[in-house]
Design a protein that fits this description.
heterodimer; A: 321 residues; mainly alpha; 76% helix; 0% strand; B: 279 residues; 68% helix
Chain lengths: 321, 279
């Protein structure tokens, strides 16, 4: 387990290097080269000179590449034009707000989606209903789902639809936390529904397959209750694909979080992204994308390890099928 | 094959399942709109067709936007972008994912391991963010979105095709072909591909759905093709006016949901429980 953990972590580093290399090639490939890519067509001579010096554009390509990797490794992706600060600093500053939404949402989606998915695998009217609801939610663009929740009579009046805290009242301590939680209800609910649809569908799929296998019949023959067979026999066996698909979905979930923030004017990465696009603040966009990739890989690594913890067959690293 | 198994697929009910019927009912209008926008759109989608912010009514079935453009006409033209995008993503996925899957499965060894690591890498990259970066650096366009999404959608299929190929590698008809002296290339194309590519049908729905939703998200962030109409961009614009015109954000969203639901239902095999595949 330790060996495979180290191996997987090393692979994550290789992937980060691949992302950095792809970014370097991309900046070179933009017509006009890295300076035009990072500044657009209207940069003043000062800015151009600064970027040329920083990226070492008068050096051979190999040296430029080494310098670029060095800059990224030290966490330097350039200055944000709109904030006048290192772009990564700006991104880190906006990250907590996104995590406040995303972490509870992904946990809740798992906690609610799993039992619903298991229930949906039993068959019958209720199962069909759960599946239909999940399929519809799965087909919805998450930003539109959030927008519709906001317009649903009742919701928009009871819960705040914009921002992270009440701008007219200054709460402190517990009152502030409650205020933020109150503001988080609708965006969080949107994200939960979005992620839950997928969780329900993959759980249901995995469970239908497991419940049709002979060891389940043995479980019932022993006199185990349906609940026990589902949770203690079928679920652990079906867990690996569920976790794997959940892990593959993390990038998708993060994108969803960004879109939902825009709907509800939540001051996290999503708002920052839209502002960066509108202001043509390319270094900031680069920073956001890199941090997004970093978190996706981290999440994926965790899902990988969880998958191995749940399935003995994967632990020695030989079974890759 | 026995006589019973040879019954027509119509008789066995593969087509006449409620999910399939609903899928066709949802997708047919979108296809008609995409193929014949001049016929199905009552107005020019780019030009003013009446008073601004007219609610849905007899003149404008779905109302008009803040510039007096007819919403139904814009949705019809938006369908074209969505279909082109979905088709490109599916074709690229099958070409790249199917091709690499067969190569990896047949080659085995180091090439196989390298290709599968590469597939893993592509699979976990957050698509919307990559697209966001490319659109910022190269300028937003539908071609860019379609190609990028297509080139990022294939790993799931590659993994399935590779597994099929590995199973087929030692099948008797492949051994027979090898004994007859067929080249690896011929074995791959003539003897393995037809069977190994069957799972491609099951990923069409999920791939197309993900492509449309990703592009909608990109447009919602303000990076839609400036020359074309995108449903995601219509939702974005509609939200700015949702106090004055609820229809502007409601209908474009419904168009996306209908299309994606139709595509998902089309690919659902109800016997295996149904649900999205690993994409």
């Amino acid at each position: 387990m330790l060996r495979i953990t180290l191996l997987r972590s090393a692979q994550a580093f290789v992937m980060l290097w691949a992302v950095a290399t792809a970014l370097f090639s991309l900046l070179q490939a933009v017509p006009g080269g890295p300076v035009t890519a990072l500044t657009g067509d209207f940069a003043d001579a000062d800015t151009v000179a600064r970027i040329e010096a920083r990226l070492g554009l008068d050096q051979p390509l190999g040296e430029q590449y080494r310098r670029f990797l060095g800059l990224l490794a030290s966490g330097d992706v350039g200055h944000s034009y709109t904030y006048g600060r290192p772009a990564l600093q700006v991104v880190w500053a906006h990250l907590p707000a996104t995590l406040i939404l995303a972490v509870p949402a992904i946990l809740l989606a798992g906690l609610l989606g799993l039992p619903l998915g298991i229930r949906a695998a039993r068959g019958g009217r209720l199962s069909a209903l759960i599946k239909a609801a999940a399929l519809i939610a799965f087909a919805m663009p998450v930003f539109w789902l959030g927008h519709m929740l906001r317009l649903t009579p009742g919701f928009g009046e009871v819960f705040p639809v914009q921002g992270m805290a009440d701008a007219r009242a200054f709460h402190e301590g517990v009152a502030h936390a409650l205020d933020v939680a109150h503001h988080a209800v609708l965006p969080c609910l949107t994200l939960v529904l979005h992620q839950m649809a997928y969780t329900v569908l993959i759980t249901q799929r995995a469970m239908v397959w497991q419940m049709g296998r002979p060891y389940i019949r043995t479980g019932f023959a022993k006199g185990a209750s349906r609940r026990r067979v589902e949770w203690h026999h079928a679920l652990p066996n079906g867990a690996a694909p569920i976790i794997a698909l959940f892990g593959n979905r993390i990038g998708w979930f993060l994108s969803g979080a960004i879109l939902v923030e825009v709907v509800f004017a939540w001051p996290g990465l999503g708002q920052l992204t839209v502002a960066a696009i509108q202001n043509r603040d390319t270094p900031l966009v680069v920073g956001i994308v890199l941090v997004g990739c970093l978190f996706t890989m981290l999440g994926n690594l965790l899902a990988d390890l969880a998958q191995m913890a749940s399935d003995v067959r994967l632990r020695d690293g030989t079974d890759t099928a | 094959m026995s006589a019973i198994e040879q019954r027509s697929i119509y008789a066995t009910g593969i087509f006449w399942r409620p999910g399939r019927v609903l899928a066709v009912a949802l997708l047919l209008p979108v296809l008609v709109a995409a193929l014949f926008p001049e016929v199905s759109a009552p107005f020019n989608p780019q030009g003013s067709a009446g008073a601004a912010l007219t609610p849905p009514g007899p003149d404008h079935l779905l109302g008009t936007d803040d510039l007096g453009r007819d919403l139904l006409s814009m949705l019809v033209h938006g369908a074209r972008s969505a279909i082109v995008l979905a088709a490109a993503a599916v074709v690229l996925t099958i070409a790249v994912g199917g091709g690499l899957g067969i190569v990896a499965g047949l080659a085995g060894g180091l090439a196989d391991a390298a290709l599968m690591r590469f597939a893993e890498f592509i699979a976990i990259l957050p698509r919307l963010l990559v697209l966001l970066l490319l659109a910022t650096l190269l300028g937003p366009s539908l071609e860019l979105a379609a190609i990028t999404i297509g080139l990022m959608s294939w790993p799931g299929l590659a993994r399935i095709v590779r597994a099929e190929t590995r199973a087929l590698k030692h099948a008797e008809h492949v051994l027979a072909a090898r004994a007859l002296g067929a080249s690896e290339w011929r074995i791959g194309v003539r003897h393995v591909a037809p069977a190994a590519l069957v799972p491609a049908f099951s990923v069409i729905g999920p791939i197309a759905t993900a492509a449309i939703l990703t592009e909608a998200g990109l447009s919602y962030l303000g990076l839609s093709d400036p020359e074309l109409i995108s449903w995601g961009d219509l939702v974005r614009n509609g939200q700015r006016f949702f106090h004055q015109g609820w229809w502007l954000s409601l209908f474009p969203g419904m168009a996306i949901v209908a299309t994606c639901l139709g595509l998902t239902l089309l690919g659902l095999d109800e016997t295996d429980g149904g649900g999205p595949h690993a994409t």
